[in-house]
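User: My instructor asked us to take a sequence, write out its structure as tokens, and then describe one feature of it. I'm not sure where to start. Here is the sequence I was given:
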Amino acid sequence: MLLRRAVSGVGLLVVEPLLAVGRVSLHTASVFPRIFSGDWEFDELVGQMREFGVSSLPMILMVSFFMGMVVAVNTVGSFIRFGAENYVGGIGALTMVRELSPLLSGILIAGRIGSAMTAEIGSMKITEQIDALLTFGIDPVAYIGVPRVLAGILMVPLLNIFSVVMGMIGEYVMAVMYSGIASGVFHASVADFLEFKDVWGSLIKSVVFGFIVSVVGCAEGFASSGGARGVGYRTTMSVVVSINLILFMDYIISLWIWGGVWGGIY
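Assistant: Let's start with the prediction itself. The structure tokens for your sequence are:
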């Protein structure tokens, strides 16, 4: 019995991620044609943009500000000790723009919006509201899924921009106001280190992450079954799958843009 449970557990760990990727792929293939069909409502898109953007902004700002301070705390002391305080602003800017801000925005949105999206759609599924839409001739993927996917694609890049700004403010507070690095030196370092492709790379990441969060949230919601427990399981899976795909795509995009693979963006 114990061996059977162990083998079953290992098999579930292997099969479930593959099933999740399959669900996400199928949902992606069904969403894209419906974006251009016009069968979705603009008011629903505006409401979802509000949920993704305005409702999530305070959390993004607070976390990013303290993350910028943490980056400064972990770099300023060592840089000053080795006489490299001229690089503090630039290194912090690269860290926030290339990695921390896109990842923070994507992962926080996955935890806040992606899980709520899955729970909402899953509840609609088990209470047969999805079937009611079909009865009235309404395509649930277009009516429910498309506005959420578009909202994720549009709003997560904006949240990423706010995250970068607040992260840099947090780093400035620690580096200049607390540690005494000259403000001019800090600004010059940022200007010297940041390049155009860093900004574009950050925006590309955030667009991809927003798409991942929204399409995974919808796919897991539509796959819900088995009552409240099934909805809870899908909600958990939504966050887990989203974060893993975000980290995977973060590696792929970083390798493409800054790793020199396939020529990068120059």
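For the description part of your assignment, you could build on this observation: The chain has a mean pLDDT of 85. Try explaining in your own words what that tells you about the chain.
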